[in-house]
């Protein structure tokens, strides 16, 4: 949640990209930690170190299906002169009562089963006749089909060193070790480790809930028929997907018509499930820019500290932006421009870092690298604006995709990087080194 309203500024002030981002990150605060079941904690960030309560594995166990033996009993064994041992029974995974293996004896053992007392090593079943007396076998017969395999004698054709094919107690992690550090994002491998050491719940910062809505009477839901002057709503789908990709739980709201009261009412209804709200469209200077109309004075009615400020940024695309907080909990709201490329670029630069900050991550930014520009001609950029061009990156080089138009959705779909042209640069020649934001 936000701790304070963003600083105010002269409405004619041209904000830099860095100033706007700094203001957002200074306002947004990580969500409060909660205790969650480990599956519910997937994608969340740990807020505590996790210590191993019991060693893993908790006992010596076999890594093979085979026979648990004493080293001396199979020393010198060969196909010509096999060691012949008495089979005293089976040791299966999960078995509580253990057999004792004495001199000249062996127990048939399954993968994961505890090494029985007296045994020092494990001989894989492929090194034996499986108790059939017919030479080396490739595996054991199922106990249900051949219960007599757990008794009688077995021929062993190869020797085995001590502790061969034995997983030692604590060979993965030992009791008292730190399994996971605070700040770790919990993915499937981390959840597997938590389950393996017996942790059913963990303390994490929850995934932020992000509500995304588009504005515009011209927007139509995909799958419906287009009328005259209408277009399909792509922004809300793109940004909802982008929020999920950033780690959030995201909710898409159907496009809201160009009516300020309807928009304000919709936003108020959605606050109950939002840690962050994102709108797209209606933030420029047109007569139908309803987001600006609806939210410019929202702080006059809400609690002190709330309010949305609309700004002009020295960037292309994405000059018009809005940021602030709304409602009794001062829920952060970012108002993005409506052109698809402007909207998506703005999300990557401003909303994604806000989501990652809410999650409690230390590194909230996309990776940035230097790359060689490969292009048929020089790139031009407006003076005083930081331009972000779509590009494809490979092997240390980046190639522009599409033009600079903020409506070029098809070009965006093929891009995996943003080419950054600084404010003081108006032309970039092919072969120059440029800064690149990696999106994938």
Strand content: 25-35%
Give the strand line-up of the largest sheet: 1-19-21-22-18-14-17
Distance N to C terminus: 28 Å
Structural class from helices and strands?
Answer: alpha/beta
Helix content: 10-25%
Q: Provide mean pLDDT, rounded.
A: 89
- The shape, in one word, is elongated
Characterize the largest beta sheet: strand count, sense, and whether it forms a barrel. Answer: 7 strands, mixed
Question: What is the number of helices?
Answer: 8
Total strands: 29
Instruction: Name the poorly predicted regions.
Output: 1-6, 299-304
Rounded to the nearest angstrom, the radius of gyration is 32 Å
Structure notes:
The chain has 440 residues and is of the alpha/beta class. It is 18% helix and 29% strand. It contains eight helices and 29 strands. It has helices at 17-27, 71-74, 188-196, 235-246, 260-270, 290-295, 340-359, 409-413; strands at residues 14-15, 34-37, 45-46, 50-51, 61-62, 66-69, 83-91, 105-109, 121-124, 153-156, 166-167, 178-180, 201-205, 209-215, 219-220, 231-232, 249-256, 276-280, 307-313, 315-316, 320-326, 331-336, 368-373, 379-380, 386-394, 397-400, 417-421, 427-428, 433-438. The strands form eight sheets. The protein has a seven-stranded mixed beta sheet, with helices on both faces. Strands 9-6-8-7-10 form a five-stranded mixed beta sheet. Strands 23-26-25-27-29 form a five-stranded mixed beta barrel. Helix 1 runs parallel beside helix 7 (340-359) and helix 4 runs parallel beside helix 7. The two termini are 28 Å apart.
């Amino acid at each position: 949640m936000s701790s304070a309203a963003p600083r105010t500024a002269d409405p004619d002030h041209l904000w830099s990209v860095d100033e706007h981002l700094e203001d957002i990150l200074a306002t947004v605060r990580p969500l409060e930690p909660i205790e969650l079941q480990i599956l519910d904690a997937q994608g969340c960030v740990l807020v505590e170190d996790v210590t191993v309560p019991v060693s893993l594995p908790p006992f010596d166990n076999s890594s093979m299906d085979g026979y648990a033996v004493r080293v001396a009993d199979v020393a010198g064994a060969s196909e010509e002169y096999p060691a012949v041992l008495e089979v005293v029974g089976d040791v299966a995974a999960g078995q509580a009562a253990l057999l004792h293996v004495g001199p000249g004896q062996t127990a048939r053992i399954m993968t994961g089963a505890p090494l029985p007392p007296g045994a020092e090593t494990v001989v894989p079943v492929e090194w034996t006749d499986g108790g059939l007396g017919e030479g080396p076998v490739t595996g054991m017969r199922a106990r249900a089909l051949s219960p007599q395999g757990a008794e009688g004698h077995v021929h062993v054709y190869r020797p085995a060193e001590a502790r061969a094919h034995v997983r030692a107690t604590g060979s993965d992690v030992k009791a008292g070790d730190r399994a996971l550090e605070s700040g770790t994002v919990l993915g499937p491998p981390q959840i597997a480790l938590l389950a393996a050491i017996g942790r059913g719940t963990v303390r994490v910062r929850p995934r932020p809930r992000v509500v995304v809505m588009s504005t515009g009477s011209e927007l139509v839901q995909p799958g419906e028929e287009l009328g005259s002057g209408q277009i399909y709503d792509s922004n809300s789908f793109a940004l909802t997907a982008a929020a999920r990709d950033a780690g959030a739980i995201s909710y898409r709201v159907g496009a809201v018509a160009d009516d300020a009261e309807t928009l304000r009412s919709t936003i108020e209804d959605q606050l109950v499930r939002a840690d962050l709200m994102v709108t797209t469209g209606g933030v420029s200077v047109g007569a139908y820019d309803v987001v600006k109309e609806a939210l410019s004075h929202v702080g006059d009615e809400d609690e002190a500290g709330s309010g949305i400020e609309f700004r002009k940024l020295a960037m292309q695309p994405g000059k018009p932006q809005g940021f602030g907080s709304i409602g009794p909990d001062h829920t952060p709201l970012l108002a993005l421009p409506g052109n698809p490329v402007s909207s998506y670029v703005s999300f990557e630069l401003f909303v994604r870092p806000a989501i990652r900050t809410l999650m409690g991550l230390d590194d909230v930014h996309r990776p940035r690298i230097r790359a060689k520009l490969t292009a048929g001609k020089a790139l031009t950029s407006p003076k005083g604006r930081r331009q972000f061009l779509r590009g494809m990156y490979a092997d240390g080089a980046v190639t522009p995709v599409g033009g600079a138009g903020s409506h070029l959705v098809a070009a965006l779909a093929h891009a995996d990087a943003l080419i950054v042209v600084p404010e003081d640069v108006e032309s970039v020649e092919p072969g120059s080194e440029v800064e690149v934001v990696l999106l994938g």
